[in-house]
Amino acid sequence: RLPRHRFVDEALSSHAYEDSALPIGHGQTLSQPYTVARMTEALLKPGLPESILEIGTGSGFQTAVLASLARRVYSVERIFALLESARKRLHALRLRNVRLHHGDGGLGWAAYAPYDAILVTAAPEGIPRALVNQLALGGCMVLPIGHGSEQVLVRVIRTEQGYRHEILEPVTFVPLLG
C-alpha cells in the first residue's frame, strides 16, 4: 500500500517496485523491498512496539513502513538534505506519528528513550552501546554489523544483564558514520 515510487527520484520511479536497492543521493541507497520487509519482520518478532527509533532516515521509506506499524517513530539522519526530503515526503503522506532529527545516528536520540525497538539502516563495526542503552528492557534492535562484504543482519534483545543477540543472515549496507 505504500507508494515506494514517491521515495526515489522521478527518473528511477519505473524501477521502484523491483526487488533492488536504489540510489537516493549523497552516496546512500533505498534498501531493496526484501531487506525492508526482512528487517521489519525481525523487529516485530517480539511483538508490536509502541515506540521505534530508526537510525538512518534516508529517503523516509522505511520510516513510513514503521509509522504504519507503531504508535511513534523517531528517526535520526546525519545528511540534512536527505532529512529534509524525507520530511516533505512523510508530510505529503500525512504521517503524523513521526519525529525526525538531524544528528549522529550512532548516538541515538536519548531525549525520547527508552524505545521498544530500534532499527539501524547502516552498518556499524559492532553493536553500539549507546543504542543498546536506549532500548527498553526486553526491547529489540535490528541492525547490520560489519564492514564491506563481511556484514550480517543481527537481532539484539535488551536483557537485565545487558543484551543477547542472534545472527539472521548476510547483508550489504553502507557504513554507519558519525
Essential attributes:
178 residues; alpha/beta; seven-stranded mixed β-sheet; two-stranded antiparallel ribbon; 4 helices; 9 strands; globular
Class of secondary structure makeup? alpha/beta
Helix content: 10-25%
Number of strands: 9
Query: How are the strands of the largest sheet arranged?
Result: 5-4-3-6-7-8-9
Task: Give the H and E element order.
Answer: EEHEHEHEEHEEE
* Poorly predicted runs of 5 or more residues: none
The largest pleated sheet is described as: 7 strands, mixed
Q: What is the CA-CA span between the terminal residues?
A: 33 Å
Describe this structure in words.
This protein is an alpha/beta fold and about 180 residues long. The protein has four helices and nine strands; from the N terminus they run ββαβαβαββαβββ. The chain has helices at about 35-45, 60-65, 80-90, 130; strands spanning about 20-25, 30, 50-55, 70-75, 100, 115-120, 135-145, 150-160, 160-170. The strands form two sheets. Strands 5-4-3-6-7-8-9 form a seven-stranded mixed β-sheet, covered by helices on one side. Strands 1-2 form a two-stranded antiparallel ribbon. Helix 2 (about 60-65) links the parallel strand 3 (about 50-55) and strand 4 (about 70-75). The protein is globular. The mean pLDDT is about 95.
Task: Characterize this entry briefly.
By secondary structure, the protein is α/β, with parallel strands linked by helices.
